[in-house]
Here is the input.
Amino acid sequence: MMMASRCSSTSIFSHVKTATPHHHQLCQARSSSIGHASLCWRRSLVRDDHLASAIPLLTLTSSSSLGGSYIPSVLTCTAQTAMTTNLAPGTPVRSTNILVVGATGTLGRQVVRWALDEGYDVRCLVRPRPAPADFLRDWGATVVNADLSKPETIPATLVGIHTVIDCATGRPEEPIKTVDWEGKVALIQCAKAMGIQKYVFFSIHNCDKHPEVPLMEIKYCTEKFLQDSGLTYIIIRLCGFMQGLIGQYAVPILEEKSVWGTDAPTRIAYMDTQDVARLTFIALRNEKINRKLFTFAGPRAWTTQEVITLCERLAGQDANVTTVPVSVLRFTRQLTRCFEWTNDVADRLAFSEVLMSDTVFSAPMTETYDLLGVDAKKIVTLEKYLQDYFTNILKKLKDMKAQSKQSDFYI
Here is the structure.
């Protein structure tokens, strides 16, 4: 049993809300004497006697080339956070009580399924939505409605929780900083104030190396913020999900639609989200892994063309590939910067440009497997994952055609 704050969520929020940003702004790019842009994430916080020692100050500055060839950016990210004072005597909280944030996403739902199978009591933080997340309830999880973009809705979801597993990310149609920065800061502050015992955060591999990409910069900044929060944490950087390849390549090939690719030799070590969830809970139970940062990568890194070729072979048909040169992406990004309403599109194109550049999103896993006590042979390969998918889907298509012919016969 661990001890957590006895305070109600209402009284907690009366303190926590003073620790959320009174002023949060993304400084505009400023030209300097050396021809660089300076990007500054600065948080000015209202101080309060109750949480004066717990209020963080985070400043991130970076510089990148305004034009011409890319110049490596200089990134400075600092956070100052002291231990939060306990607001009240604690009450016992079971270590099996977890909150999954982003539970309806590709990774989040696998985390929920694995946790339930492992015997955890799972609570899922889900935004209010027209289509309720009934499948989570059907699995046996408890669903609570809250929104990271509305900090006042967060504290109640943390009552009685031991561990937070943060799988959330913003929707494509909303500003990146709303959920991935402001929302995560509010969640981490609430978790600290309410005595959460452990916080698991999923980030992006190499996010520290690409400060020119807003999403990756924010992920890295959130890592630093969490590390300096005083919480016990585990940070897991991810390269790519195998599940995402189904809609991107497998389905369009089967439906004889265009498949989009690039001419860049980027390699990504995709991983099955079920393996990510399994390794996460192994890490969660290992106290030696507290306050550590890991990268989870699949057995092999693949180029876009290699993935398409594999899908073609397994589907038994050729793909209609439309190749987009990386130079077009770069031009599109610069063009969208000309209009305020396209800034978020440009931010996401910047992320796409990194993925499509000459880089490798992978990491050695031998040491991680040894630390977790995991057999590398039990990690699903992309070949096995896609083979299982195509075998199942082609069998269903064959059965559907057989039923259709049978119906035509009786008619």
About this structure: Residues 4-11, 13-88, 405-411 have pLDDT under 50 and may be disordered.
